Amino acid sequence: MKNDSVIEVNKVAKKFCKSLGKSLKYGLVDISRGVLGLSNKPDKLRPYEFWAIEDTTFAIKEGETLGIIGANGSGKSTLLKLLNGIFLPDKGEIKIRGRVGALISVGAGFHPMLTGRENIYVNGAILEISKKEMDKRFDQIVEFADIGDFLDTPVKNYSSGMYVRLGFSIAIHCLPDILLVDEVLSIGDVNFQQKSLQKMREIVKSGRVVIFVSHSMETMLSFTKKAIYLKNGRIKGMGNTERVIKEYLDDLKKEGRV
Amino acid sequence: MNNKIIKIYSSNSIYSQGIRGIIKGMIENVIQSRELIWQLFIREFIARYKQSLLGWAWIFLMPIITMGTFLLLNISGIIRIGNIPVPYPIFGLLGFSLWQILANGWLVLTSSITGGGSLVTQINFPKEALIFYSIGQVIVDFLIRLGLVLITYLLYGLTPSIWFLLLPIYIFPIFLLTLGLGFLTATLNVIARDTKNFIEVGMSFFLFLMPIMYTIPEKGFLAKFNRYNPIYFLIDVPRSIIISGEVKYPLEFILSCLLAIIIFLCSWFIFYITQSKLAERM
Question: Taking CB atoms and an 8 Å cutoff, what residues of chain A touch B42?
Answer without folding.
Answer: 122
